[in-house]
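Narrative of activities, Objective 1.

The group set out to show that a structural description can be obtained from nothing but a protein's sequence at a throughput compatible with the screening campaign. Below is one input-output pair from the validation batch, recorded exactly as produced.
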Amino acid sequence: MIKRESYLSQIRPFIDKSELIKVIVGVRRSGKSIMLELIMGELLEKNVPQERMIFINFEDMNYSDLNTAAALHEYLKNRIEAIGGRVYVFLDEIQEVKNWEKCVNSLRVNSDADIYITGSNAKMLSGEYATLLSGRYVEFTVYPFSFSEYCEAKRADGTNKSISEYFTEYVKYGGLPFLATTPLDERAKAQYLKDIYASVVIKDIVKRNKLRDVDLLERIIAYISANIGRTFSANSIAAYFKSEKRTVAVDTVINYLNACEKAFLFHKISRMDLEGKEILRINEKYYLADHGLRQATYGNNQRDIELILENIVCLELLRCGYKVTIGKNGMKEIDFVCDKNGKRIYVQVCYYLSSEKTEEREFGAYDNIKDNYPKYIVSMDEFDMSRNGIIHMNIRDFLLNFENK
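Output recorded for this entry:
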């Protein structure tokens, strides 16, 4: 098991702070359950007995009778009373329980329980009953493996390949932890990704949002997958469908896009006017939670590698806690403007700086940016082409060292 220290370091200060519910969210199979196991491991290292920990996975049929707040509360109340003293409660995929917030809040108020929950829906704390927990929880988003975590996982299982070979695999199959830690052939990997995609679409998008037109949803997902990193709007998607002889209301497109975001299938990145310092409300970009899902359902990750590289970098920036926007700089655009703790970095992504025209486009994106914040260009090039204070890095080096920046 890979010890995901970047997440543990965020969660660790809140262990034993029972007044706050620890909420771990992320796309299905991104490693949320493993994070609960890692937290339990931390408690064991602190000499907390295993019998003081209650773990329930609500996708396990053994707990299917605990699908209401009342039933779950009765079960946990009895177990907590039987144990006595401080108890640690771990509830995995809690959104399967109707009105779960009422149960969790009651436990928080009336028992000596340190509570950790996971879910696959970004809006699970925005409903009517979620107001019970307002200001009483901390939320952590877990993403699929970063490239550095992927390399760590492959080395841990005894695989001995070069960084370049690992990166080729990562580009094609993504970073879902199961694929990185389980030896599978290409056919099995593709089937696993297709199954995860189907699970996200059917359980976390269609069923949870009561969407009627699954075919339309899949067409919208295919459109976004084909246009990763390109600006577009709900209007442009509706216009595309119209050209395909299918009439779709713009509001419907917006609702389906929002449902995909809530299930963490896509991350929407807004555009910011760097001159006016305001967020633009049109033509956002979307990036997949894991580019391996694109390979399984749309294909062509290696053919469309420039889009995939941009997706990988975007997720790395989000994973490291940056607020990420697209920078509009006059007539030019900067791929990623990243802010955290009062600091900023800029990042441009391309495949290769293969011509003077490409170099001019990528380096020229920073023309008129007069501040002293770090400015990066990352690509597959092996040679350092930095100039004029703009830092050029090979993308593998950037990803492997970025967490330390």
